[in-house]
Amino acid sequence: MKRRSLIRGGAATLASLALPHMARAQTAYKAEYKMSTVVPPAFAWGKGGAIFAELVRERTAGRINIKQYPGASLVQGQQDREFAAMRQGVIDVLCGAPINWAGTVRELGVFTLPFILPDHKAWDAATHDAGVMDEYFGLVRKAGAEPLAVGETGFRQISNRVRPIKTPEDMKGLKIRVVGSPMYGEIMSSMGANPTFMSWADAQPALASGAVDAQENPLEVFLAAKIHTLGQKYVTKWNYSNDILLFAIAGPVWQSWAESDRKIVRDAAQDAAKQQVALVRKLYADDVEAVRALGVEVHLPTPAEMQGWRSATRSTYAKWKAAINPGLIDKIEKVAERARS
Ligand code: X2X
Q1: 242, 239, 248: which is closest to 273 by C-alpha?
Q2: Can 30-153+243-284 and 157-241+286-325 be said to share one CATH topology?
Q3: CATH superfamily of 30-153+243-284
Q4: Residue of the nearest CA to atom 4 in ligand 1?
Q5: Chain segment 300-323, per-residue pLDDT in tens
Q6: Beta carbon of 97 within 6 Å of any ligand 1 atom
Q7: Whose CA is nearest to atom 1 of ligand 1?
């Protein structure tokens, strides 16, 4: 026993002399890397995180062990604290919606301006455009994380328990739960609704008790969380905002990994993101039917109504464009414009 461990110890010393870099990096590896997701793997974006963790575990033969903490439990459900917690070393791996981090890094919300990317064609064009993404990833790095890949959280649709919403006037007086960026709040208040900021954990009881009338989320989330059971009877599929799902690693953690492992992790994130986007799109394709089957009334806006939503949100758009990052947003607008023509 003693002899064998002596031999093992000798071999390890030899290896560390022969491969100083690798040995240094590897001794610094943690037993577990903590990944925060707001929702669990029953939801497409939680699933994206689960796939990523699994691929990394497989492909590094367990050297890098990413553990998913859904419900943003590493920050007690306060999803708007995720990015700050990543900076403090509490979270190692992000698989989340930058809109939740608007209080920490507002610039990362450039994709969420109202109707900036009105359909999947425009969304794909922007998130695959090298000019846009190089600049965006540069902002993520500057903020303290290494960006690896981009998935999709899904087009956010509005639901409420009071009445069908067809025009901005229908929003008047509705108490609506929003999350993340104050921009979402302003979109709602500019149309006469009363927004309240609330985490996902708090949103569900607030809907159930009727403390709030309305909420906005992708229909995939509506379905997976059974929001219809919380009294939400009317949905409008207006596609006003579709955040990316950013896969990223805390800067110091990224630096601690061997070059070869970094490549494995980046490739795994890109593969996971592709699978996650495919899943979101598959659910999106028949979400209206699925929601209607639950007895919920779904309104699909006419082109004229869509124009009305765009006009109603224009001033909020302009204000936030100026405040967030006008240069990058110009670029995104141009790419979106080209995708239309
Ligand atoms: O809390 C929400 O509404 C959710 C799950 O969509 C986000 O994390 C932005």
Answers
A1: 248
A2: yes
A3: Bacterial extracellular solute-binding protein, family 7 (3.40.190.170)
A4: 200
A5: 999 999 999 999 999 999 999 999
A6: yes
A7: 200
